[in-house]
Amino acid sequence: MVSALGVLAAERPALDGRDTGFPDLTNAVHWLVDDTSWDSQDPATSVGTILRNAAEAEVIRALVAAVVAVSDRQGAEASDAAWFGDSGWHDVRRLAAEALTCLARPADH
């Protein structure tokens, strides 16, 4: 998940089509949304397994909502460049960076 968050938080690459790096945008979205079902299941249900606490669940909840909003506007078949250029992508980047910070905090905070 940390790798997925890193992709989402990173500076937007200059692309004409798809990102060819690994992990790429497609994998990052799959790992964060599809593999966890957090688009249909509250991340709070993952506290104690994938997530450590309610603060992590809260930021992941907001991030998943932002990613899903971009997906709803752009569609799964849109180019990575279209996703990165979406009006809501700045929210995705900000929330992913916030999630990385939250996950890096010691467990007792």
UniProtKB/TrEMBL annotation:
It comes from the Bacteria. It holds the Pfam family DUF7945. InterPro entries: DUF7945. This is Uncharacterized protein. It comes from Amycolatopsis iheyensis.
